[in-house]
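A reminder from the course coordinator: this example appears on the midterm review sheet, so study it carefully.

Given structure:
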């Protein structure tokens, strides 16, 4: 218990020294900033806690299939064979499936409701495969990396990307 009049960190209400908890919102007098934020804006707090894990898993699901398939083909010496090119073409589909699985959304809904986002995400996954498989042509590597980074940033931060994140949050109860 504090011995002075204190202001709640969550709601800004002034409280008497005799109270350990805020009269208005119930926040403790000695609450940390994290605890106060949790009481003041529970949805925003939850979103901020879930976003980093979501973004990491979304990026991993979009990039790793291309990396794994391309590196496997590269070490087997088959990156320019018909099987290698076919495998690279399958990469976006696998990546988008993993992305939809991660975002807890049906793959059909991803294609139907978020077509531009799906196309950019698929291109980014395909671009990683191309970047690794055709590494001998370094003329366009910088441009491809910038386009991939911009595309992935757009996938996560665009209006459609934010809607998918909200869907993810609603399913992560």
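Designed residues:
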């Amino acid at each position: 218990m504090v011995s002075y009049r204190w202001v709640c960190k969550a709601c800004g209400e002034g409280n008497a020294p005799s109270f350990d908890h805020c009269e208005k919102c119930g926040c403790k007098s000695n609450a940390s900033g994290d605890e106060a934020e949790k009481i003041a804006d529970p949805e925003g707090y939850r979103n901020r806690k879930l976003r980093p894990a979501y973004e990491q898993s979304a990026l991993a699901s979009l990039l790793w299939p291309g990396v794994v398939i391309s590196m496997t083909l590269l070490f087997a010496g088959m990156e320019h064979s018909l099987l290698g090119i076919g495998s690279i073409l399958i990469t976006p589909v696998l990546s988008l499936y993993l992305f939809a699985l991660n975002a807890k959304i049906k793959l059909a809904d991803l294609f139907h409701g978020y077509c531009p986002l799906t196309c950019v995400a698929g291109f980014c996954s395909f671009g990683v495969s191309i970047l690794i498989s055709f590494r001998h042509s370094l003329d366009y590597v910088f441009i491809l990396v910038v386009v991939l980074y911009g595309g992935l940033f757009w996938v996560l931060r665009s209006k459609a990307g934010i809607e998918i994140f909200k869907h993810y949050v609603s399913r992560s109860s």
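The chain has a mean pLDDT of 80. The first strand starts at residue 6 and ends at 7.
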